[in-house]
Amino acid sequence: MNATTTDAGTTRTWCIVAALLWLAVLVLLFVNCGSNPNFWFDESGQFWMSRGQTHFMPPLTPDGTLADVLQANRTANSDPGGFTVLLHWWLAGGSAPAWLRTLPFLFFVATMAAFAALARLWTGNRGLALAAGLVPAAVPLLTRFAFELRAYSMEACGVAVVLLLLYHVGRRPTVAGYLGLGCVAALFLTSRYSLICTLAAAAVVVWWQNAQRPLRQRAAFLAAYGIPVAAACLGIYLVTLGHPLAHQKPEPPDYVQLYILHGKSLGEIAEIFGKGLASTYLGSVLFGATWLWCRLRRDEESGYRLFTPLFIMVLLVNAAFALLSFAGKYPWCPQLRWGISLDLLAAAGMFPTVLMLWKGSALRRQVSVGLISLVVTVAAGAGALAVSATTRLDSDDHIYANLMALGPEKLAGRRVFVEITAQPSVRYLFEYGPLKQYADGIYPRNFQFEVPANMNTAGLPIDYFLSPGTIRKSEFSR
Fold first, then answer.
1. Are 350 and 441 members of one domain?
2. Residue 436 falls within a domain, yes or no?
3. Which residues, including other chains, have CB under 8 Å from residue 337's CB and lie 6 or more apart?
């Protein structure tokens, strides 16, 4: 595909506009979510695992070693543990909410950068590239999990980076290039198990990219990519699922059964797919339909061949998720966090869809690149601004807000019963978080935790009951 060019002045203008939109979007997102101290159960549990502990250990338990971190992850987590280890090192910089949430946010920013780099490879136009980089910020699921202290933004970033490197290495294939791609893919595989679907699809793309080369060379390229990924799979298995002290199970937990296609009636399956299509996932459908339409018409001007790797990825990853769900192994829900890879690929298909429709129609002769840049920048910018302005870390966990509304100082001389699902968050808030300043003389002495491994068993009257969503006064409160 020939590089799309505009005059230097127009390009510079759209680069400045897009860069300002980037700044506005990132600032809005961080202001809305970046310092939120209400870590819900999974997030606070992630914090403790990265300190070498599990969710329900006694208050003031000393931090563990890296070996303890790995054991905590295989005991209390459902992910391979790469994010857990990364957070363990990140904690050297502090434990404030804003610092903790910056780690997943950096993966989101890297995802935006990968989108921009992809668009630059596709078009050669910096203004269009920066505008395309705004697309992830216009996707609510991606912005919502840009700050969650879990591995979801790392997984989404992994999909984007692997896709970018497939295109980059595929331009001038070398063994070293595919080896580098495999090593990067292997690192991201430690984020979440579901990323294996993307990496398997990428292997097919590697083989397809080199279809015209001798078989021995194709095999060498595929091996260069596949060996690091296979090594990562083996290492992850030995450290997690296959470890004798592991508690992780390959079966999906009960709370995702609503989105498991196995055993569902046709009506229920249609309902699940309908919910998915009502989300950003529709972008994959539109991209796939547009690519097939151009392919069937043999419309070379549309440039559809450039997007064949993306089409293969979208097709195979979606097929893998659907097959796993029909087998009862994984939920199919692109609108929810477990389907964030599908959501990312749907977002990746939006810009190519616009390009194919523009280049493959009479609009190409009637609409200049400058006007297309305007349309893409306005559409992506408006969507990104709207989503970033309304993104919130909404959950049922309001422990910090409720305690501040009550007044932490009022807990002096009072006993607080902490329900099991609130325990890891309460421990974080008083031991490392923003309530640490109120802990003296109050925590943990006045707290009775529901889990038996608890320091307060005196049987004294309870003044307050604390759950993730509420704090209520006991009828026996003094």
1. no
2. yes
3. 141, 145, 148, 150, 152
Tell me which residue of 120, 127, 168, 89 sits closest to 12, measured CA to CA.
Answer: 127
Contact between residue 398 and residue 469 where contact means Cβ atoms under 8 Å apart: yes
Q: Encoding tokens for residue 468? A: 């993730």
The string of pLDDT tens digits covering residues 214-257 is 999 999 999 999 999 999 999 999 999 888 877 766 677 778 88
- Neighbouring C-beta atoms of residue 418, cutoff 10 Å: 25
Report the C-alpha gap between 45 and 431 in whole angstroms.
14
Assigned domain for 53 exists = no
Query: Could you tell me if 299 and 356 lie in one domain?
Result: yes
- For residue 81, tell me if it sits in a domain: no
Choosing from 311, 339, 361, the residue where a domain stops is 361
| 323 and 258, same domain (yes or no) | yes
Q: First vs last Cα of the chain: how many Å apart?
A: 76
**Does residue 231 sit within a domain?**
no
State residue 102's pLDDT score. 98
Largest CA distance in the chain: 83
With a cut of 70, which residues of the chain have pLDDT below it? 1-11, 248-250, 362-368, 452-460, 475-478
pLDDT for residue 1: 42
Q: Are residues 404 and 354 in the same domain?
A: no
Overall domain count for the chain: 2
CA angle at residue 425 from 421 to 430, to 5 degrees?
135
pLDDT of residue 7: 52
For every residue of the chain, which 3-state class applies, written as one string? CCCCCCCHHHHHHHHHHHHHHHHHHHHHHHHHHCCCCCCCHHHHHHHHHHCCCCCCCCCCCCCCCHHHHHHHHHHHCCCCCHHHHHHHHHHHHCCCHHHHHHHHHHHHHHHHHHHHHHHHHHHCCHHHHHHHCCHHHHCHHHHHCCCCCCCHHHHHHHHHHHHHHHHHHHHCCCHHHHHHHHHHHHHHHCCCCCHHHHHHHHHHHHHHHCCCCCHHHHHHHHHHHHHHHHHHHHHHHHHCCCCCCCCCCCCCCHHHHHHCCCCCCHHHHHHHHHHHHCCCCHHHHHHHHHHHHHHHCCCHHHCHHHHHHHHHHHHHHHHHHHHHHHCCCCCCCCCCHHHHHHHHHHHHCHHHHHHHHHHCCCHHHHCCHHHHHHHHHHHHHHHHHHHHHHCCCCCCCCHHHHHHHHCHHHHCCCCEEECHHHHHHHHHHHHCCCCHHHCCCCCCCCEEECCCCCCCCCCCCCCEEECCCCEEECCCCC
Please give the residue range of the domain that contains residue 433: 399-473
> Residue 32's Cα: distance from chain center in Å?
18
